[in-house]
Automatic annotation (TrEMBL):
This is UDP-glucose 6-dehydrogenase. Belongs to the UDP-glucose/GDP-mannose dehydrogenase family. It comes from the Bacteria. SUPFAM superfamilies: 6-phosphogluconate dehydrogenase C-terminal domain-like, NAD(P)-binding Rossmann-fold domains, UDP-glucose/GDP-mannose dehydrogenase C-terminal domain. Pathway: Nucleotide-sugar biosynthesis; UDP-alpha-D-glucuronate biosynthesis; UDP-alpha-D-glucuronate from UDP-alpha-D-glucose: step 1/1. It comes from Nakamurella panacisegetis. Its EC number is 1.1.1.22. Keywords: NAD, Oxidoreductase. The active site is at C265 (nucleophile).
Length: 438
């Protein structure tokens, strides 16, 4: 059992804290956001994440997990995880390091010799080296490790308890052995289950995270570029993805063409990576990521154009139902959500847009108060000239075309995620259009 601190209780930190407590450790979660801390402390997740509520409740009931705004609670703990956000800086590509720096500065007065600070936030390469200097100045006996986190929203609990791999970016010898021993204790459960472990230096560990996210973004934009070509030729990108995906070297995962990637990670991570490479004089190496980003954003424009085409050239005064507001299913996260972006564009261009989502309406309403909202797909589709599925929730995949047809004004379906069965919808009398499919 390790006594540990988790600083930053967002999607990453809160799930990490609860899963660590569930694994037998003694954990205190620290966040500067008092309402968030109070919500977590009373067992109410401040965000939607499947399975999290149960893990949180069990961990609190075990007495091994508590939350506070007071950094002094870190005193006496041996391992301190830094899980705060590194959002995109306003008007720039680079990451905003304010929260990481503030977390480390607030933590240092409470460190003791032998403590291990573990960075989990996604940061520009070189950050760990810089933070190690700050730590050394404050508490020469403390150590730093970089341990990137690869969890996906929607699967956060599962990914935390049973990760694909563990990466330890360790300090130089001789501190590396002590840091590794502490991390091995923290991750005793996944390690004993055979989770692969890669130990590296700081810079490599930092780069693993942004390289992985860049590769995933590239895979999605690759298939979306193929979708553009398919649209120009009348070919079907879904069949194309199936066929190339059978090649084990390529693989079918992350080849779903559609509206492209959003969320709090992929878009800002590739931009921050380009910005950092520029600072390091390696911008040419990542020039392709600019194209990955623009292919991705072009899909949103294409979606709006397609809506206009379906509405005979103008969406002005048309009523459009948008099914989905979250950036992906099984999440209430609307950060850089392609669905909400498209909904906003449609409304700006004169349509009346009614948005629904099984979990993200509250967040969407706060971020985009100018749109209209409904609780269910049937309500959103009431009198709609056009229905668009922009986030592929199971609820929407299982919609009954006949039932939906009974409330709409026009039977036009635009599938922004290639998630519906075109044969079924067309058989029910709908016009069905999708990105990258004839
Ligand atoms: C991502 C990484 O997957 C995860 O490892 C990292 O820790 C954080 O960033 P996440 O942001 O939760 O996780 O979402 P992810 O499942 O990667 O999806 C990102 C976006 O890509 C979503 O908008 C999704 O809809 C889109 N996507 C994904 C596609 O458009 N097509 C695909 O085939 C897969």
């Amino acid at each position: 059992m390790t006594r540990m601190t988790v600083i930053g209780c967002g999607y990453l930190g809160a799930v990490h804290a609860a899963c660590m407590a569930q694994s037998g450790h003694d954990v205190v979660g620290i966040d500067v956001d008092r309402p968030k801390v109070e919500s977590l402390a009373s067992g109410r997740p401040p965000f939607f994440e499947p399975g999290f509520e149960t893990v949180l409740a069990d961990a609190i009931a075990s007495g091994r997990l508590r939350f506070t705004t007071d950094f002094a609670a870190a005193h006496g703990n041996q391992v301190h995880f830094v899980c705060v956000g590194t959002p995109q800086r306003a008007g720039e590509n680079a990451a905003d390091m304010t929260y990481v720096d503030a977390a480390v500065n607030a933590l240092t007065p409470h460190l003791s010799p032998g403590d291990l600070v573990v960075g989990k936030s996604t940061v520009p390469v070189g950050t760990a080296g810089r933070l190690a200097g700050i730590l050394r100045a404050a508490e020469p006996g403390a150590m730093l490790a970089w341990n990137p986190e690869f969890l996906r929203e929607g699967f956060a609990v599962q990914d935390t308890l049973a990760p694909d791999r563990l990466v330890y970016g360790l300090p130089a010898a001789p501190a590396d052995a002590a840091a590794k021993a502490l991390l091995d204790e923290v991750y005793a459960l996944p390690l004993s289950a055979g989770t692969p472990l890669v130990t590296t230096d700081y810079a490599t560990a930092e780069l693993v995270k942004v390289a992985a996210n860049s590769f995933l973004a590239t895979k999605i934009s690759f298939i979306n570029a193929m979708a553009e070509v398919c649209e120009a030729t009348g070919a079907d990108v879904s069949q194309l993805a199936d066929a190339i995906g059978y090649d084990a070297r390529i693989g079918r995962r992350f080849l779903n063409a559609g509206l492209g990637f959003g969320g709090g990670c992929l878009p800002k991570d590739i931009r921050a990576f380009m910005a950092r490479a520029g600072e390091l004089g390696a911008d040419q190496a990542l020039a392709f990521l600019r194209e990955i980003d623009s292919i991705n954003l072009r899909r949103r424009v294409r979606m709006v154009d397609l809506a206009r085409e379906v509405c005979n050239g103008s969406i002005v005064g048309r009523r459009i139902a948008v099914l989905g507001a979250a950036f992906k299913p099984n999440s209430d996260d609307i950060r850089d959500s392609p669905a909400l972006d498209v909904a906003t564009q449609l409304q700006l261009q004169g349509a009346t847009v009614v948005v629904t989502d099984p979990e993200a309406v509250t967040n969407a309403r706060r971020a985009s108060p100018g749109l209209h909202y409904a609780d269910t797909a049937m309500e959103a589709a009431q009198d709609a000239d056009l229905v668009m599925v922009l986030t592929e929730w199971d609820d929407y995949r299982s919609l009954d075309p006949d039932e939906l047809a009974s409330v709409v004004a026009g039977k036009h379906m635009l599938d922004g995620r290639n998630t519906l069965d075109p044969v079924r919808w067309r058989a029910a009398g709908w016009t069905y259009r999708a990105l990258g499919r004839p």
